[in-house]
Amino acid sequence: MCGFEIKSKLLANKELKAVAALHSQSINLGFLSQLGNSFLFYLYKSLSESDGSILILAKYEDDIVGFVSGSVGLGSVYKHLVRHHFVGVALALTPNIFSLSKLKRIFETLFYSTQDDGPEGLPRSELLSLAVQEDFRKSGVATKMCQELIKQFRKNGLSTFKIIVGEELQGAQRFYENMGAVKVGIIEVHKGSKSLVYRLEI
Prior knowledge:
Layout lengths: L2 E5 L5 H14 L10 H13 L3 E8 L2 E9 L2 H20 L6 H15 L11 E7 L8 H15 L4 E7 L3 H10 L2 E9 L2 E9 L1
Parallel strand pairs: 4-5
Antiparallel strand pairs: 1-2, 2-3, 3-4, 5-7, 6-7
Helix pairs in contact: 1-2, 2-3, 3-4
């Protein structure tokens, strides 16, 4: 079936573009998808390069059919993004500078990423994103990728992490609850858009 590759170092640009495209297709209700595939490319490039970040790919016949990403702290990912890919990110975001609502959401996202803790003093470590191609969504790929992510978090000495899930994403909520995650709060990263906060002990 699917083979897994743990990517904590540099990924090929072809793979990063495939991850960005899959994010855009599968997480299309999220704000980051509205910023375009070019921005997502640099975001996942930073995830593959920055210390303490993990990017796990699921492949079938050399095609990327799923991925999960996590980090010990989202702030370090965005700092790496700006420090090492500023020009590319600036060009990718240029179409968005004429939208005040998008600019506001960009700053809200950056502000959230600098916060060390959430409700109940949650850990900085976080499962950031999870996506699977539609044809593989009932194949167990998502569960296997999350199990691999947990292994990597444990190797980094972590015993818990948080997951932020959109209030409307009931399928995702059930998936994480079945993994053992416990809902511990509600946050509003963007005004009027609530997300549930889960904590998973590993």
